[in-house]
Each structure stands twice: as structure tokens, then as C-alpha cells.
Specification:
The chain is 38% helix and 16% strand. The chain is an alpha+beta fold and 346 residues long. Strand 8 (268-275) and strand 9 (278-287) form a beta hairpin. The protein starts with a helix and ends in a 19-residue tail after the last helix. Residues 1-29 have low confidence and may be disordered.
């Protein structure tokens, strides 16, 4: 009886997961010409690629293995940023609240806080800025201490992002049992579709959902989200400014930016993620024909180098250029890279 009951449970669970994945699968526009442009780039890459890109005002979309769970590397920090923004809006957190970096807290890897003397006092906003613009691992751990992995994961689940998960702090031992798939994914997992959807929520400044989801609302839709008010927009302006000042610009922005964004501003807000065999980038690109969200993940890459010409980074850049040029042939313009992205919402 025990074996039979377990088998039935497993079957039912598998069926439920299949239904959820089917609900989450986006409907892609029929764009064979664009797919034809992308195929040579994909074929030339010595590794694997999962991507999802969508133009929010037209609904044009393209996906390749967009529902396949992949390693996030540092792109999971977008989930932490979203949670922080929402808690600031709700008054549960404050940009100027003080956090103390203590001896033993700094960890190696990306960022600069590992080189600072401790104890060091930072504001919440400063730590989030470090986490986003230079992908600071030490700042990320401060944010995980502040908000908690369970809270972040519950938020992702409430958005219907069932395959987006933050496992633990960076380069610190887990404080409890880990899911069985943690060794495969490391810091976090997601899908290209779910991460594009999360970035769209940030760009559209959608911080209030009317009910938990079992599947994500498509990034082109605001269904179930309240129209952003002035306080929402103020919070989103801070988060979008962080993303717009991303320091690492060798992937999606590589062939798209033609000006010094540090002086003139940018039309691209992004968050990168990198491991030896992984290069990722998730971005909002303000096209003159309308805003686009691109989530491009490369993994199992043969090139493990850490130069700007890493093949994974160049592949992402080529894919981004092809997509953006096809959908916005007149180029990009940062004037619409503001909370709400210039879109009409209910």
C-alpha cells in the first residue's frame, strides 16, 4: 500500500508540475525571419543558450529553451532587489536604514566591499547599489541577511515564478537543508522567461499584485497589478537607476551603446551573471519603437576565460544586437527608460 500510495502521489505531483509549466509557457510571435538571424549565432557558440526576449508594447517575442531551468549566477540578485523595493514601498524597509558589515562578513569574488576595513556601516540603499552595479557578493549577503532567502523565494512564488529560487548566501555554508537540485544550480536557478518577466515587473513598476499566482502574468500584461502611484514610482526610480548604472556592459549593451553612458545616461538597464562556464545578462532596452526585455543565458560554455572577449559574452552581445535591431531599427533612446517605461497601464 505504501509503495502504491507513493507512486500515485508522484504521478499527481508530476501532472501538477506539467500543468504549471504549460501555463507558464509563453505564446511566441511567429517571427521566422528573426529566428533565422539568430540561428547562425547560436550554431557558432561553443556551449548552450536559453533566451527569451519580448517587446512590451508590440508583443513581439522570441524564445529558445525559455522554460528550461538554468543557473542564475548573479542574476538572482534581481529577485533580492525586487523584494527590497517592495518592502521599502510598504514601509518595512528604508533606503537610509543602517547595516553593519562586521569582521568575517566579507567574501571574495565580484565587488569591492571585500577590500574594505570592518566594521563598516552602510545604508540599505548603498548595499543594494553595490549588489547591482558591481554585483558585490558581500553586499548581496548583507541583503540576504536583511530580507532572508525564504522571504525572497516566497515573493517569487507569489508572482508565479515557480522556477526562480535563491538557495543560500554566497560562499557561506547553508544554514539549513538545501533542496536536492542546489548542487546543480549553485546560488540560484531560474528560466529565461521567468527572469524576463521579473525584469519587466521592475521596469513597469508593478509592486502590488492582487493575488498570488500559480504561473506568471506575461511580461506584456499588467493584469492583476495595481497601477503605480507616486510612491511606487519613487521607489522604482531608485531601483531602475541602479540597474541603469550597471558597471559590466560587455554583454547586451556591447554593440548597442554608441555613447559614453556614464556622462549622457543610458537606454539599457541590466544585471549580469558570470561563472566559469556561464555568462548571463538580463536587460531592459529602451528602443525608439518601444521597450524590450531580453534575458539571455549561456551555459556549459567551452570558453572559461575572464576577459571581455569571452565567447559567452560576445554571443550574448550578438544575439542582443540582432533582436534589438530587428525590433527597433531606428535605435535606442534613454528618454523612455523611466519607471513604467512609458507604457500605458490600467
Amino acid at each position: 500500500m505504501g509503495i502504491a500510495k507513493t507512486s500515485i502521489t508522484a504521478i499527481l505531483l508530476g501532472a501538477a508540475m506539467a500543468v504549471a509549466q504549460a501555463q507558464a509557457a509563453p505564446a511566441l510571435s511567429d517571427d521566422p525571419a528573426l529566428l533565422a538571424q539568430l540561428q547562425p549565432i547560436l550554431a557558432a557558440h561553443h556551449g548552450k543558450v536559453a533566451l527569451y526576449a519580448v517587446q512590451l508594447n508590440t508583443g513581439k517575442a522570441v524564445g529558445i529553451d525559455q522554460n528550461l531551468p538554468v543557473q542564475t549566477a548573479s542574476d538572482i540578485k534581481l529577485a533580492i532587489l525586487y523584494e527590497a523595493m517592495l518592502e521599502v514601498r510598504e514601509g518595512k524597509a528604508h533606503w537610509d536604514e543602517k547595516l553593519v558589515l562586521r569582521p568575517g562578513d566579507p567574501v571574495p569574488g565580484s565587488g569591492v566591499l571585500t577590500f574594505f576595513d570592518t566594521p563598516l556601516t552602510l545604508t540599505l540603499k548603498d548595499a543594494l547599489t553595490m549588489m547591482v552595479i558591481v554585483s558585490d557578493n558581500t553586499a548581496t549577503n548583507l541583503m540576504i541577511d536583511r530580507f532572508g532567502t525564504d522571504t525572497v523565494n516566497a515573493r517569487m512564488a507569489s508572482l508565479g515564478l515557480v522556477n526562480t529560487h535563491l538557495y543560500k548566501k554566497i560562499m557561506k555554508p547553508a544554514t539549513g537543508p538545501m533542496p536536492a537540485d542546489q548542487p546543480k544550480f549553485g546560488l540560484g536557478k531560474t528560466t529565461a522567461y521567468e527572469m524576463a518577466t521579473l525584469m519587466a515587473r521592475i521596469g513597469r513598476c508593478e509592486l502590488h499584485a492582487d493575488a498570488p499566482r500559480t504561473a506568471p502574468v506575461p511580461p506584456t500584461s499588467s493584469e492583476g497589478f495595481a497601477k503605480p502611484d507616486a510612491q511606487d514610482l519613487a521607489v522604482c526610480a531608485v531601483g531602475l537607476k541602479m540597474l541603469s548604472n550597471q558597471f559590466y556592459r560587455e554583454t547586451i549593451p556591447r554593440y548597442l551603446e554608441t555613447v559614453d553612458s556614464s556622462e549622457t545616461g543610458t537606454a539599457i538597464a541590466s544585471k549580469t551573471g558570470s561563472l566559469n562556464a556561464v555568462r548571463n545578462d538580463v536587460a531592459i532596452v529602451a528602443g525608439k519603437s518601444g521597450p524590450m526585455v531580453l534575458a539571455i543565458f549561456t551555459y556549459d560554455n567551452a570558453d572559461h576565460g575572464w576577459t571581455v572577449d569571452n565567447e559567452g559574452e560576445v554571443t550574448i552581445a550578438k544575439l542582443a544586437k540582432a533582436i534589438v535591431t530587428d525590433w527597433s531599427p531606428s535605435g535606442i533612446d534613454g528618454k523612455t527608460l523611466v519607471p513604467g517605461l512609458g507604457l500605458d497601464v490600467k
